[in-house]
Amino acid sequence: MNTTTFTPPPPAPVISPPADAPVGTGPAALTSWRFRRARVQDADAVIELVMLIDLHLHPSETAAAVAPLRRMLAEDQTSNGSLSHGGNHMLVAEGTDGSLVGVAHCGPAAWMFDDDIVKPFMRRKVLERVASVNHIAVRGDHRGQDIATNLLARTEHDLRAAGYAALTLRHDRHLTRFYQAAGYTSGPTLGLHLPPVGLITESARGWRYAVKPLTEQVTFTTMRGTRALTGILPG
Length: 235
Ligand SMILES: CC(C)(COP(=O)(O)OP(=O)(O)OC[C@H]1O[C@@H](n2cnc3c(N)ncnc32)[C@H](O)[C@@H]1OP(=O)(O)O)[C@@H](O)C(=O)NCCC(=O)NCCS
What we know:
By secondary structure, this protein is of the alpha+beta class. It contains 5 helices and 11 strands, in the order E-H-H-E-E-H-E-H-E-H-E-E-E-E-E-E. It has helices spanning about 45-50, 60-75, 120-130, 145-160, 175-180, and strands at about 35, 90-95, 100-110, 130-140, 165-170, 185, 190-195, 200, 210-215, 220-225, 225-230. The strands form 3 sheets. A 7-stranded mixed beta sheet has the order 1-2-3-4-5-9-6, sandwiched between helices. Strand 2 and strand 3 form a beta hairpin. The longest helix has 16 residues, at about 60-75. The relative contact order is 0.15. Residues about 1-30 have low confidence and may be disordered. Bound molecules: coenzyme A. Coenzyme A binds near residues 52, 143, 146, 147 and 171. Coenzyme A binds near residues 143 and 177.
C-alpha cells in the first residue's frame, strides 16, 4: 500500500485576474455586480444567503450548521494562498449598492466520507484534489442573471489554480438542470476510482451528486455499472 506523501501537481498555467476583479455584469445597469472574496464583515449577509438553501436539516439544527462559516470568515486571510480562507474558498457577488446578492463557498467534501469508505490515509489525498461546493445561493430578486453560473466558473478557475482536480457537490433533484447547464454531470451516486482502493461510491437518499473535472487528467469511467471519476490521484 502506497503511503508516500502526496504532492499535488503544479497548477495548470491559467491567467488569473485579481480576485477582486469584476468578472460579470447583469443585463441592466441596476443589476450589475462584481465578484470578490468574502470578508469578515460579510458574515451576516453570507449567512442570510446560505439560509436560502435547503440544507436538509431540522430548523433547530440550522444555526449550528452555519456557525462554522462565521468562524471561517473571521480567520486570517493573509496566507496569500490561491483560496480565500485556507482550505476554503468563498466568493461573493456584490451589487452596485454594496449589498451581497450571491455567495459560493467551497471547501473539503467532508460528506464524501460519511460512511468511512475512504481510509484515513487516502482521505487527505482525496481532499487535496477534490473540493466540494458546500454552499451556493443568489438572492431571489437577482436570480436568472447568470450570477450563480459565473460564481461557479470563477470558483472553478481559482480551485484549478490551487491544484484541485475536480469539483463536486450534492444537490436537490430540481437543480439538476442548473448544474448540467454549468457543465456538471449529475447523478444519484458519486463514484470515485481511487487506486489502489478501487471504486468508492457515495449516495444518500434525497440527494443527487454533481461533479466536474477541472483538469484533463480527470475523466469519467464506468465501473461495475457506476459512472466514476478517474485520474484524481496520480500514479
Ligand atoms: C440555484 C441558484 C443558486 C441559481 O442562481 P441563479 O443566479 O439564478 O442561476 P443562473 O442565473 O446562473 O442560472 C443558470 C441556469 O440554471 C437555471 N436555474 C437556475 N436556478 C434554477 C433552479 N432553482 N431550478 C432549475 N433551474 C435553475 C436557470 O434557468 C439558467 O438556465 P437557462 O440559462 O437555461 O435559463 C438560485 O436559484 C438559489 O439561490 N436557489 C436557492 C439556494 C439553493 O438551492 N442553492 C443550491 C444549493 S445546491
